[in-house]
Every structure is written in structure tokens, then in C-alpha cells.
Design goal:
Length: 373
């Protein structure tokens, strides 16, 4: 197909932007709503086209010069060509559109929680060749070297550590702990100590742990506020990891259970409970689909699933548990909308909605909702 001109209408989840041509949706990258651009088709998917942008005809007043020389070749950042305020507005609209299109949910405008745009990541995995460190270009195994001053997203201590590391021919994970010490996956059994408020968390470098060091406490406080635990109310934390939400919710003496499918996380969660002298929680290695409404009852259910969201069986079990409140945290607006729609069919209504920008500059976004009967 030949090149053609479109007007960009909106952003889509995943870092693309959408326009229309001859009745088909057109997905492209590196543009902004309101811009007129020339695109070249890459593939025809039937009812939509994927294209690359080849020329800008009319530019948005919100376009800026990207502050990273590796953009857009690296592919890790989707919004470096605009200011942060615009990025947050784009993500808010993506969430609202996903709720409407996937879940049939209208009328809910999310609160936005954000922090620093750069150097927020406490861990990062970089690719390594025998010459350098970098990231693979989008959709390829072509290594894009890190800029001389490092990546804008990780903690500066990680960039410093990368500059001193000798490249091999592998990928290496770097992480900075609560004391500022840098660890690497070359020592995977190292224990990292994190501090969030009065809590301490032990984790290993490959355990899931929220990456945004500026927003972790904000996330904990939001979960506590949404859960609204009263004296003697119990809770269930699905996808508890090393006890991040579980231990925070138990600080006032509420009894709770955390489940996770990863054995290493559960073992550390139990150690973290002892570390913080919290004895009102139980941790179980358990797939969420194996929850039972009688044995796993709770007044509040908090769920923070992976991108695939909650499976159908788990959603049904939560409805059978019939908690007073559901706190749902998600990193995928499509599965978030789908699951919220199922809970609404089960008699719950959305009371609060937030967008947490845990991954500034990137295509990723985090959302949280409070539902009650």
C-alpha cells in the first residue's frame, strides 16, 4: 500500500496512537492527538492497519524534543516526545476509553497519582553484548546501546553501576535497595532490604516488587484507604508477593491472608511478617483459581493480578466470598475493565477509581478501583 495522510485522534494502550483512513483504524507511533502525519503501512490486519510515521505535516503544541538520544529506536519509552502533563492526560483518556469500550463502564473519572518522571525505577534488566549494555529495539533482537549518560528511567545509582559492569553476552538485572546499595542478578540469592514507612521488606532480585520508588508509599496508602478496614474486619490479598500490601493492611491488627503462586515470594513474605513482628497474617502458596469461598472468606478482598487479570474461576470465587469491599489493582486497562464489569454484574459498584503512573514515560499504566455492594 502507498503512503497516506491521517489526522491522529487519540492514544491507545501499548504506546500506539490512532487515526482513520478509508473506514479503517490506523495505528502508528511517535505522534500526538491533533497531528497530521504521513504514514506508511506495515501490515493490514483486516479491520485496522499498523503503520510507521514517515513525516509530520502539522505538529501538536504539546510536542517537545525527546530528552533521550535513543528515542524512539530503543522502544522502551512511548511518550518522551511530549511533556509529562500531556502524558498523564493521554493515560487518563486511555483508561477511560478502555473502561467504556471493554467494560461498558461510563462516568468514572480517575484520580491521578504521579511522582517524578525520571530515575524512579529501583530495578531494571538490561541486555548485554560483548561490547555494551542496552535494550532491544521494538520487536527485534537488535541491541540499542544505552546513551552515554545512561537511561532516564532507573535510579542514578543503577546507571553508575551499569557503567562499571563488564559486558558479557547475557541479560543482567540491577536493583538498588532501600539503603542505596546496588545488587545484580549475578548474585541472585542476595537479600535486598526495602523500607516503606515503618515496614521493612526482604526480597531477592527476581521477586516481584513495585519498581517506582517514589510512588510505593502512595500505593500502600491508597490500598489502605480503599480497603477501609474496620476493627475486627478481615482481608484476603491475592497476588501478595513478598507481603507488600498484606503487611501494610495488617499493621492495625486486622487479620488477613496473602496468597501467591511463587514459592520464593511466600517464603519471604513469612519472613517479612516476623521481621515486622506482625502475627495476624497467614501466607499460602496457592493459585488464585484454587481459592474456596468457605475456607478463604474475608470482609475485604484485595487483588493485584498480572497483566492477564483474574481468570473466570477466580472472579466467580470472589463473588461467592461476597466481601464487603473489593480493592482491585491492575497493570492492564483491558483486563481491568473486563474484570470490573464482571464484578458489577455480581452486584458491586465502583466507588473510587485511581490512575497510578508507576511507569512514567512508558506505555504502561497502573489503575486501582474500590468496589462495594
Amino acid at each position: 500500500m502507498k503512503q497516506f495522510r491521517i489526522t491522529v485522534e487519540k492514544a491507545a494502550f501499548g504506546g500506539s496512537f490512532i487515526g482513520f483512513h478509508d473506514g479503517k483504524a490506523v495505528f502508528t507511533t511517535g505522534v500526538l492527538p491533533g497531528e497530521e502525519v504521513i504514514v506508511e503501512p506495515l501490515s493490514d490486519k483486516g479491520d485496522y492497519l499498523t503503520c510507521k510515521t514517515v513525516d509530520l505535516i502539522k505538529t501538536s503544541p504539546h510536542r517537545i524534543t525527546p530528552p533521550c538520544p535513543a528515542w524512539p529506536q530503543c522502544g522502551g519509552c512511548s511518550y518522551l516526545h511530549t511533556d509529562y502533563e500531556t502524558e498523564l492526560e493521554l493515560k487518563k483518556n486511555i483508561l477511560i476509553d478502555s473502561l467504556r469500550r471493554t467494560g461498558g463502564i461510563r462516568g468514572h473519572i480517575p484520580d491521578i497519582k504521579s511522582g517524578e518522571r525520571f530515575h524512579y525505577r529501583s530495578h531494571a534488566t538490561v541486555k548485554s553484548s560483548h561490547e555494551t549494555f542496552g535494550f532491544f529495539a521494538e520487536g527485534s533482537n537488535r541491541l540499542i546501546p544505552l546513551p552515554d549518560k545512561g537511561c532516564l528511567l532507573p535510579d542514578r545509582a543503577i546507571n553508575d553501576a551499569i557503567s562499571l559492569e563488564i559486558p558479557s553476552n547475557d541479560e543482567v538485572r540491577f536493583a538498588v535497595d532501600g539503603a542505596g546499595a546496588v545488587h545484580t542478578s549475578k548474585n541472585p540469592e542476595d537479600i535486598l532490604l526495602e523500607r516503606e514507612g515503618s515496614l521493612r521488606f526482604h526480597r531477592k532480585i527476581w521477586n516481584f516488587y513495585q519498581a517506582n520508588r517514589f510512588l510505593r508509599s502512595e500505593m500502600l496508602n491508597l490500598a489502605e484507604e480503599y480497603a477501609g478496614l474496620k476493627k475486627d474486619e478481615t482481608f484476603l490479598d491475592i497476588g501478595c508477593g513478598v507481603g507488600f500490601f498484606t503487611l501494610h493492611l495488617a499493621q492495625n491488627g486486622n487479620r488477613g491472608t496473602g496468597i501467591d503462586i511463587e514459592r520464593s515470594s511466600i517464603e519471604l513474605a513469612r519472613k517479612n511478617a516476623r521481621l515486622n513482628t506482625i502475627d495476624t497474617v497467614t501466607f499460602k502458596k496457592l493459585d488464585a483459581s484454587r481459592l474456596h469461598p468457605q475456607g478463604d472468606s474475608a470482609d475485604v478482598v484485595l487483588a493485584d493480578p498480572p497483566r492477564a487479570g483474574l481468570d473466570k474461576k477466580t472472579r466467580k470465587t470472589i463473588l461467592a466470598i461476597a466481601p464487603k469491599r473489593i480493592v482491585y489493582v491492575s497493570c492492564n486497562p483491558a483486563t481491568f475493565a473486563r474484570d470490573l464489569a464482571e464484578f458489577r454484574k455480581g452486584g458491586y459498584e465502583i466507588q473510587r477509581l485511581s490512575l497510578l503512573d508507576m511507569f512514567p514515560a512508558t506505555r504502561h499504566l497502573e489503575a486501582a478501583a474500590l468496589l462495594s455492594r
